[in-house]
């Protein structure tokens, strides 16, 4: 079940009515309804996937209970190891088994030894990268005694399977989300209205921006040898707009849907395309994932650097970005994408300016300064360059794509099918980024749009957005991050 489907349009109001009108006086019943609804939502793809999420839930629940009882450090480490092996084992098998197998075979072939181990026809469970990280962080925090484990299995199951963010995040920490399942929730009209507004903006991002851009990004990337360098640049731009509209759109819908039920989720995107360097970019892009790696990988590894050597910091950055790349998929293109981003991140780290660009760009001004504009443009352009590796089918495809860009045809007029529709898409994308620019101080683009306007005018704006969605929506595409 996907957010921009008729199925979800029917599913959401049914759950909403049952949640607030049938179970509103009983917290346990509300949490149980969340679990049942989440399992229906997730099982809509394939009911067999439910076995995995239930297994992961049971393991981490009992690991938490045992960690509460156990004071022996060695036994506590064994318990944590169980959680790590189960969660990363599931993720490794379903997502990386064939990838590592193919590279294992290729490595022996390179040295003249033929070893053929057959690959398996494995279906990747939707969202497994998200919920395994979520449950694993719970066990780690309980082990470190940063969090008291829960004895409420229903509340814990609801935390693991919470349907708005189950499939593609944000990756929630137990310390933030789990306590919300212990607290009595009452319907808040203003919170629900804000949630609906964020859902609307997320649908606009996905259906108008991402789905339309996908049509041209797919056309150009899938037939890249047939196009000029200028067209390939345009293809990379279309995919850059697509992935942002797609993923941040999903996050907006997830956060907005959660607010309908009285929950607050972590902001996952903070207008990353308005960043002035790559340190700022990665503080604003997929925030829940980068914070996860910062807290559970970067900081623990940095503590080993007692002499504070810069070389060790650089190594940690490379390791972190390589793993972030691999997290996205079992392909060398993602590894190289991670390495490229590490190389772009490191100059800021070496200048000790990692925390320099913290505030909003051009704060209190409509137009950025020449320096801010140059930094914004260069950061965005370099990300567009890196995203080619992310989108390419293989390293060979990425190198071919880049080599065709840097040719004399780069200075030709772009030529591809559907240019009139593409112009409309680019115009809508420009409009979209203008709205985001003026809303860059807020949590999402239209949070404060028309906030002080009279109700009829404000509602008219929302109806115009709905009208644009129905008139200009692209061909329905699956959310990109479902494959991760």
Task: Describe the protein's architecture and organization.
This protein is mostly helical. The protein folds into two domains: 6-187, no CATH class; 191-276 and 357-483, no CATH class. It has 18 helices and no strands. The protein has helices spanning 6-22, 27-43, 49-69, 73-110, 128-143, 153-161, 163-166, 174-177, 189-222, 229-260, 278-284, 287-302, 310-328, 332-350, 370-391, 395-405, 419-438, 455-472. Helix 10 packs across helix 15 (370-391) and helix 14 (332-350) runs antiparallel to helix 15 (370-391). The longest helix has 38 residues, at 73-110. It is globular. The two termini are 16 Å apart.
| Uncertain spans | none
Total number of distinct structural domains:
2
Radius of gyration: 23 Å
Characterize the largest beta sheet: strand count, sense, and whether it forms a barrel: none
Instruction: Note the total helix count.
Output: 18
- Total DSSP E strands: 0
Could you say which structural class the secondary elements and strand pairing correspond to?
mainly alpha
SSE order, as H and E?
HHHHHHHHHHHHHHHHHH
Distance between the termini: 16 Å
